[in-house]
């Protein structure tokens, strides 16, 4: 009975740590959601142009690109835990500046500082969760940051609706400034969490790493197996103790860029292609256009009242969170690859329908109720399909495929591409739909989604159930497609 009562204790502790870590993603998600509504009021008070709105919306992602590249090396140098603290403090500073916001220039500075924090948060939350979890629960725990982003976006939409009723001068400043409070709380709370055992092994702190593994594993045997695998992946002899690890075996991230970019192995090259590709397609398929400019989309479709627009965006937030919750429970059961293909297929259909309905509204000289309804349904369907696959899988996949020494900085390249693509969409969407119509813009996203489906089918092997230390072998196959076939055949032979 006593053994049975202890079962799952380590997994529960690892889950608690991942939940706390993922709180940084709620703050980022809130900033994304609240800005979609705040832009309406900022434009009204400060009289900024469409171009200035695009820049204000997109500057966060440009700065996040820089932040993610810096965060990779930072996470290797000071550890995963203190990197999360740095992200929280950056959010704190950015929120205070945006909440003060006397003019456009100060808003831009605050948004830029918060953007660097976003880069830190997007990299470190899934990496920490992946490194502290076991292979059987890694998909669930690594997807929690994406779920928390969805919760944050929903909170942002709700706050938009509630604070939008305040005076013009006060409302949007409170929307942007209140994120400083949870940022400070997280910066203090994160210090009570353990460091990543894999990072501790890279530093040669073997006894401390083993101690953490005993905390986050269900049994001593599981902790011992994970400890041996991590030491082997780090190039440390299985029988080494902390005193026996030489300084040359410890790592602060030096030489990683050479192994990633200049002279990568076959496996690492495919890992990098997979990480960059999945991060690119996550935003190239148009999710940021929907999340950030949903108000404009619904206005184009025929919704005219500000209150109704804000309420409709709350529906998007609810859809996103519900589907992310579903996805977190299926990642370790259905698998990453299958969810990606199903998700992207649904996105293609939804985007095509949305493009068609918005085109009909655009060309009609009278209000089309059926096209308005179809636009809203297609938008919700697109958000649902995205968040049941591509959204959460992107962060799980890119945080788990790289070898231990390359993980933080390899994942940072993927995040940098993610933020660059996000910035490109968020800063150009208004210009794109003015050039090719709003319906044409979503037909374009549907076409990109077709390319995404083909990339996922041919280039991404299944990682479900594999330990982090097995990934290099998985990507060492002659092709990722052959890897899947070989695995299937071997199971049939058994």
UniProtKB/TrEMBL annotation:
GO terms for cellular component: membrane
Membrane topology according to the record: Multi-pass membrane protein
MF (Gene Ontology): carbohydrate transmembrane transporter activity; symporter activity
Compartments it resides in: Membrane
Residue spans crossing the bilayer: 12-30, 55-75, 82-100, 106-128, 140-159, 171-193, 309-331, 337-356, 368-390, 436-460
Superkingdom of origin organism: Eukaryota
Presence of the UniProt keyword Protein biosynthesis in the record: no
Keyword annotations of the record: Membrane, Sugar transport, Symport, Transmembrane, Transmembrane helix, Transport
InterPro entries membership: MFS_dom, MFS_sugar_transport-like, MFS_trans_sf, STP/PLT_plant, Sugar/inositol_transpt, Sugar_transporter_CS
Major facilitator superfamily (MFS) profile domain span: 17-464
Family, similarity comment: Belongs to the major facilitator superfamily. Sugar transporter (TC 2.A.1.1) family.
Protein name: Major facilitator superfamily (MFS) profile domain-containing protein
Organism, as annotated: Phaseolus vulgaris
